[in-house]
Specification:
The protein is mainly alpha-helical. The protein is built from seven helices and four strands, in the order H-E-H-H-E-H-E-H-E-H-H. It has one domain: Orthogonal Bundle (Arc Repressor Mutant, subunit A). It has a two-stranded parallel ribbon with strand order 1-2. It is globular and about 50 Å long.
Length: about 140
């Protein structure tokens, strides 16, 4: 995956305030590049440096294997949730998800300006050659 794309995705996620969430496809749409699978791949491999729990499946389900950690973040940030999240916090059992209808991030004008700048920089950089970040290149 191109490092420029990874950098752009993470920069958009960094703009998101606490208490909101988006689907992988929302980030792709905002950037005008990639798709849900590419965004998911970036978040899976490189998302630990940003608020990864704010980017999830379109169903509102947390990233697999990280549900408990994500739920603690959602509760702390006041992210709107559906289902038995309180039971899940107590026992590790129960179904819940983020209510994306209420939690979906609505970028401000300043956020859109920043996203446009990130997207334009990405577009310029994608026309240049880059070294793949595959951890195999010397």
């Amino acid at each position: 995956m191109r490092t420029e794309f990874v950098t752009a995705v993470l920069a958009v996620v960094d703009l998101m305030p606490p208490g909101v969430a988006v689907a992988y496809g929302d980030i792709a749409e905002l950037l005008g590049s990639g798709g849900p699978r590419q965004i998911g791949s970036v978040m899976s491999h490189h998302g630990s440096s940003v608020a990864w729990w704010r980017v999830l499946r379109a169903s509102g389900e947390a990233p697999p294997g990280l549900e408990a950690e994500a739920l603690r973040h959602y509760v702390q940030e006041g992210t709107p949730l559906h289902g038995d999240y309180a039971g899940y916090l107590r026992t590790g059992e129960g179904r819940w998800r983020v209510d994306l209808t209420l939690a979906r991030w609505a970028p401000s004008d300043d956020d859109f300006d920043a996203i446009d700048a990130i997207s334009e920089r990405l577009e310029r950089q994608l026309h240049k050659l880059s070294v793949p970040d595959d951890e195999m290149t010397v």
